[in-house]
Specification:
With 353 residues, the protein is of the alpha+beta class. It contains eleven helices and ten strands. The protein has two domains: 101 residues, 2-Layer Sandwich (Phosphorylase Kinase, domain 1), CATH 3.30.200; 194 residues, Transferase(Phosphotransferase), domain 1, CATH 1.10.510.10. The termini are far apart. Bound molecules: ligand N17.
Length: 353
């Protein structure tokens, strides 16, 4: 049995936070219906962290299940480009007293939507490379970056209205693949590749590629770039309605990507041309995209560890509040920190101009 850390109590925005004394300088950075996030310093190793305190996680079965899901997913994620857990704690030592737990993650400075204007090619390369590495076993929810240009995919479980400064990059329709917009067919793993293409295009040009004002406008803007699809593609569409719509489109030819992206390198243009393809079956998977010459200077086999399978059987489970609470308690108390790699590229690229 390990010696229990000394906890410090502090009130932040009328809620009491009880954290091990090594975490200092707590400052609220986001709040919503599910919880509240503070930035803090781990004094032991002088590292900036983000700590999330869930809001009354055991007030109902639904809240408890959601809390367990976030804990399970964060514990599972051990990829450098996906948000993961540095620590998780509760100030109490018995299940009877268990009411709150805190999730500790690496602190991420901002999200990609806050990074304005076009970025230099080395930054775009590094950011797109990290997106594709993190994408392999996960869908993008949000893309967070720090000042060293390091990127992590995360999934904010906070309410939409109050954490406006943290949400909204790939979640909006502008980055949605056309097959998702129109519910054309079963989705494949390459829906995310479309989003990566849109984000890459935006980082290069400094403005949103397909800023549609509604669904139809969005789709028209897309077709004006990709060109309208041929009969082999139309044949694959699930619904008769989608078929009719696509057949009725005026004939837009595919746009020349070197005109569209005058600042991009030949390799960058070639990668964009491969990702921004209407037919999802023709887009590369993340793994294949990473083999593109655009990433030649960055590629490292250590960046793609074999993903461990995630047991999602609890996602459909129907358990009582007490059972979810017991699972959370066990999950918190059994946490073992994961040894982390040194980020080799630290300080070689910075987000600040
Ligand atoms: O990213 C998450 C996350 C990850 C997996 C699952 C959330 C869930 N989740 C939530 C599942 N169900 C629900 C309701 N959480 C998270 C992300 C960012 C956070 C806090 C929590 O805040 C920061 C802020 C700054 N730097 C790092 C993290």
């Amino acid at each position: 049995m390990e010696a229990r850390a000394t906890f410090c109590r502090e009130e932040i925005n009328s809620t009491v936070w009880e954290v091990p004394e090594k975490y200092t300088h707590l400052k609220q950075i986001g709040t919503g219906a599910y919880g509240c996030v503070c930035s803090a310093t781990n004094e032991k190793i002088k590292e900036r962290v983000a700590i999330k305190k869930l809001h009354r996680p055991f007030q109902s079965e639904i809240f408890a299940k959601r809390a367990y899901r976030e804990l399970r997913l964060l514990k599972h994620m051990k990829h450098e480009n996906v948000i993961g857990l540095l620590d998780v704690f509760t100030p109490v030592s018995s299940l009877d007293d268990f009411q709150d737990f805190y999730l500790v993650m690496p602190y991420m400075f901002t999200d990609l939507s806050k990074v304005r204007g076009h970025l230099s090619e080395d930054k775009v390369q590094f950011l797109v490379y990290q997106m594709l590495c993190g994408l392999r076993d996960l869908k993008p929810g949000n893309l967070a970056v720090n000042q060293d240009c390091e990127l992590k995919i995360l999934d904010f479980g906070l309410a939409r209205s109050t954490d406006a400064e943290m949400t909204g990059y790939v979640v909006t329709r502008w980055y949605r693949a056309p097959e998702v917009i129109l519910n054309w067919m079963h989705y494949t793993q390459t829906v995310d590749i479309w989003s990566v293409g849109c984000i890459m295009a935006e980082m290069i040009n400094g403005k949103t590629l397909f800023k549609g004002k509604d669904y139809m406008d969005q789709l028209t803007q897309i077709m004006k770039v990709t060109g309208v699809p041929g009969p082999e593609f139309i044949q694959k569409l699930d619904s008769a309605e989608a078929k009719k719509y696509v057949k009725a489109l005026p004939h837009y030819p595919r746009k020349d990507f070197s005109t569209l992206f005058p600042l991009a390198s030949a390799n960058g243009i070639d990668l964009l041309e491969k990702m921004l393809v209407l037919d999802a079956d023709e887009r590369p998977t993340a793994e294949l995209a990473l083999e593109h010459p655009y990433f030649d200077s960055l590629r490292d086999p250590d960046d793609l560890p074999e993903p461990e399978p995630y047991d999602d059987s609890h996602d459909n489970a129907k358990l009582s509040l007490e059972e979810w609470k017991r699972l959370c308690f066990r999950g918190v108390k059994s946490f073992v920190p994961f040894p982390r790699r040194d980020s080799k590229r630290k300080n070689t690229l910075t987000m600040t101009p």
